[in-house]
Amino acid sequence: MTLTQRVVGVLAAAVVALAGCAAGGSAQPAERVELPPGSVPEVLAEADGVLVGHRRDDRPGLLRLTPDGQPAEVPLSPATGYGATASWYALTAEGGRILGVGGDRGGAHGNVRWSVWTGDAGGVAERVQAFSTFGGWGAGDLVGAVFASGGPLLVGSWESAQAGNDVMVWTAAGDEWSRVDVAGTPLESTRTTLNFAVAATRAPGGALVTGWQAGASGQKPAVWRQVGGSWQVTSLPDGGRAGIALAARCGPAECAVAGRVDGRLALWRFVGDRWERVAGVPEIPLGEREPVAAPLIVSGGALHIAADGDRVRAIEISDGGVTTRAIADVRGPVRALVASGADAYVIAGEPAQLWRLPELLG
């Protein structure tokens, strides 16, 4: 080996070492969770353990991970043809209750035929709704299911009386769901501002909806927060020329949002009484159709897991700044993220797989 080759080798080793330090040291280990043969995970929910909404043999299924990490089937009872072939769009759990949204395309126009599922770990059933509840001329999408402080909510969109679509909320009376009148509230679109919902989560005082607003100043990331039964809308700061808030999670006193600004990953935090964009987030390209998981609220801050090309990173956010760490073996895109004790679980990859990240939060 020549002197030049030795120098190049030393420099390369130093670069690798420095890169490892910048990314938070050694890679976070990951363990693949073996699901039943043919199962493709679609959504996750935090429960007494972890709930996994999956699809197998062109039918929906629901699994609960036992304390030892083994998947146990939760009986699922479809009531319609579209429910029997649905994919999972949303899943949430609280206090032993489970609420989910499924959908499958059909009919002359290929629209999504929505199904609502409720139950507990002993079994979850589709609750049949009138066609006009989620379908018809004014129908939009369903994007989220939330156990809010005032009761369960479904969130999506519906034809606006003024312009475009409104952000729409459905509430339940027993097993029957109905739309809320959003006229005159921040959920309603106007001739100057169009509202678009992407996802929803529980928040202190109610619920939080993520999405964007389109108007004369362009496309801005926005969140709608339910407080005491009324709604407030906030345009997230530093939203660039084209921004969108894609997914969120809240704790008792704060929230974290993941989104896209001008084609790059963006993160925001709500702490105290205001939103702020997180500085120092890695410059990660994010395509328009690329899925994004909701960040976790952790002690002292938040944690997000994102695909950066073929790699996957854990991005830790605290008042002291942002640090990143590579996650071994897992490949993108990242579709869902939940916590279970000190462990985190993610759905990632193509085809999608379920991974356990042991002691990531410990």
Automatic annotation (TrEMBL):
<protein>
    <submittedName>
        <fullName>Uncharacterized protein</fullName>
    </submittedName>
</protein>
<keyword id="KW-0732">Signal</keyword>
<dbReference type="InterPro" id="IPR011043">
    <property type="entry name" value="Gal_Oxase/kelch_b-propeller"/>
</dbReference>
<feature type="signal peptide">
    <location>
        <begin position="1"/>
        <end position="22"/>
    </location>
</feature>
